[in-house]
Amino acid sequence: NKHKKNIIMNILTVFTNYIKIGKTKKKTGYYLRELAYPYMILKKNGHNIDLCSPRGFKTKPDPLSLDYNNDQVIVDFYENKKMQQKLDMTLHPGNLNKDYECIVFCGGHGTMWDFPENINLQKLTRNLYENYGLIGAICHGSSIFANLKLSNGSYLVSEKKVSCFTNEEEEHLKLENVVPFLLESRLSNLGAKHSKAEKFEPHVEKDNRLITAQNPASSEQFGNTLVDRLKYLN
Fold it and tell me: Pseudo-torsion of CA 182, 185, 190, 196, nearest 10°?
């Protein structure tokens, strides 16, 4: 592939509608940093980005992720009237009316409940990947791969290098018995080659058209890696 400069791509960013952690009273949602950073970095590079959630319409951030200490990237993204309207009106994956070159799955614990079984998202991701598109997932966003098979029946992550929120990180938060499954274990069981940094340290893994990141600390590096990789898409 010849290096091409800044071709404008259509990108679909997907994040959770789910706002409570299993049967606990704990609130969750999408993790704001993992949405804001890739979004702002991709936008700055001229790409078109649509927002999507498994059920469409309104989404909420994980309350813990609202403690962003005036981080300017997050402020510019979130404290913005237009963006707030978009976050209340996300697209439904069953009725998208354009083609995308890239799909990005953001994390937050909520995804563990509404990504793995979502047939629309699975179909979308499989089609995009099999048509040479780029797939990115950060943190719990990699739960999209938990059941995701390609047309030939193999799991998309089988034999691929991936990263995601780790078992240690889950245990640190004392949620290892609350989430429906441990994401690192699930992906490894599907044949993925899982890699990680120390807990809560940034780590991004690349495997051709699959880019995955470990945790919120990886958000900026994840966004930059997506931008770089998009330049080499056919």
Answer: 110
Strands 10-14 and 48-52: parallel
CA–CA dist 214, 165 (Å, integer): 5
Q: For residues 90 and 53, is the Cβ–Cβ distance under 8 A? A: yes
HSE value, Cβ hemisphere, 13 Å, CA-based, for 133: 20
Query: Beta strand 48-52 with 102-105: parallel, antiparallel or unpaired?
Result: unpaired
As a whole number of angstroms, the distance between CA 22 and CA 26 comes to: 8
Residues 20 and 98: their CA atoms lie apart, in Å, by 31
Average pLDDT for runs of 10 along the chain of length 234: 71 97 90 98 97 97 96 97 97 95 97 97 97 98 98 98 98 95 98 98 98 98 97 83
Tokens of 99: 């083609």
DSSP secondary structure letters along 124-156: HHHHHHHTT-EEEEEGGGGGGGGS-B-TTSSBT
CA–CA gap between residue 112 and residue 28 (Å, rounded)? 11
pTM reported for the whole predicted model: 0.96
pLDDT for position 1: 47
